Amino acid sequence: MPPSPSFEQMEPGLQAKTAYWLRIKVDSVKEVEGQYHATATVMQAYKASGALKPGDTIAIAYQLQQREASQKNKRRHPPQWVPSLREGQVTYAFLNKEADAAAFRPGAQLWSFAPPFGLSREEMQAAGMRMPKPPPLPSPANVKKFKPQPQTQAAPLPSTDKEAAEK
């Protein structure tokens, strides 16, 4: 099992250091001998060292590496260094690519396929990014109405021996 990542490898600020800031839709994910190969369609290229544009198809290669479970709580599933992708998923992608490589690689460890938490507001505005909106609240029609229950008379408390002696 690989060693646990250092604090610097888990920091969301790694997103700003990647060469490609994209919003992608995952088309397919295949696993071959522990290596994952995904194809995705670029929905928006916020920062791209190459000539990526919306509609382009890219290949992403990565390997899932589990962190070791702590001795304190062995029942918890340890977080992965790189989150896994699912078909149909729409997500931000912070990637790097070697000049001679055929596929992109995750560039921000745990934060490679996450919202842009590691970018400053100025960096996001300069790239045209917006933070994702929180999920909508349920509509009032779907929320059960609170109906107070009728008050019932509480039973009298039993008296103590001291109170009985005083009477």
Structural descriptors:
OB fold (Dihydrolipoamide Acetyltransferase, E2P); alpha+beta; elongated; 167 residues; five-stranded antiparallel beta sheet
Can you characterise this structure?
With 167 residues, this protein is an alpha+beta fold. It has one domain (7-127): OB fold (Dihydrolipoamide Acetyltransferase, E2P), CATH 2.40.50.120. The protein has 3 helices and 5 strands; from the N terminus they run αβββββαα. The protein has helices spanning 7-10, 121-127, 161-166, and strands spanning 20-32, 35-47, 57-63, 90-96, 105-106. It has a 5-stranded antiparallel sheet, with no helix packed on it. The model is unreliable at 1-7 (pLDDT under 50).
Major sheet: order of its strands?
3-2-1-4-5
Strand content: 25-35%
Backbone CA Rg: 26 Å
Question: What count of helical segments does DSSP give?
Answer: 3
What is the third-level CATH name, the topology? OB fold (Dihydrolipoamide Acetyltransferase, E2P)
Q: Mean of the pLDDT scores?
A: 75
What is the H/E order? Answer: HEEEEEHH
The total count of strands amounts to 5
Question: What is the CATH-assigned architecture?
Answer: Beta Barrel
- Category from helices, strands and their pairing: alpha+beta
Taken together, the total number of domains comes to: 1
Low-confidence stretches: 1-7
Q: How would a crystallographer describe the biggest sheet?
A: 5 strands, antiparallel
What shape does the CA trace take? elongated
Name of the top-level CATH class: Mainly Beta
Level of helix content? 10-25%
Q: Distance N terminus to C terminus?
A: 76 Å
